[in-house]
Amino acid sequence: RYALRGMLQRLGCEILDLGRIADDPEQIEQALHSAATMADMVITTGGVSVGDADYIAELLGRLGTINFWKINMKPGRPLAFGQLGDAIFFGLPGNPVATVVTLYQFVRPSILKRMGKTAPWTAPLVQIPLAEDLQKKGGRTDFQRGRLLQTPSGLQVTVIGQQASHIMSGMAHADCLIILAAEAEHAKAGSLVDIQLLEGLV
């Protein structure tokens, strides 16, 4: 929640924080209705997966429109996007790293576009050699926290910290995201990988 607030403040957003809402569908519905009448964009974290206490997608489908739900990326698969009244809605995952990554990939470009900023609204991709071998499971695009290194052979990128989506310490020290394609299962040291600079947002 604090990382989310900090990133939105750096984008120049006026934030209306409705606080933490209990896992109760009636309370969540009331909060969503209130938020949609006050804001241009409604952002929630958590409650967007398929657990017994995850009500966001169901309520969005009833109160508004779901444009898409669940995406092929890690971290951040249970992302919901749609319309809630006149407001754009983003339901972000509850794990903190997944919250930051999905905000950077989806919410930030939407905000910049609505602010009238000049395209491109997404952060550009830059190719940098890997400092070490990387492994991943195939099937989903992987966003790993990384850090740039100046070496005798030039600029390289290395993974930093543990990559589990609930561990925020690596994100605190990262200056980029290393992006590995869905079909990839490994990347060799020295090979070029796509990165996105975090631009001081986190």
TrEMBL record:
EC number: 2.10.1.1
Keyword Cell inner membrane applies: no
Highest taxon listed in the record's lineage: Bacteria
UniProt keyword Ubl conjugation, yes or no: no
GO molecular function list: metal ion binding; molybdopterin molybdotransferase activity
SUPFAM superfamilies membership: MoeA C-terminal domain-like, Molybdenum cofactor biosynthesis proteins
Gene Ontology CC: cytosol
Catalytic activity: adenylyl-molybdopterin + molybdate = Mo-molybdopterin + AMP + H(+)
SMART domains for this protein: MoCF_biosynth
Reported cofactor(s): Mg(2+)
PANTHER family (UniProt xref): GEPHYRIN, MOLYBDOPTERIN BIOSYNTHESIS PROTEIN
Protein family according to the UniProt entry: Belongs to the MoeA family.
Protein name from the UniProt record: Molybdopterin molybdenumtransferase
Organism in which the protein naturally occurs: Acidithiobacillus ferrivorans
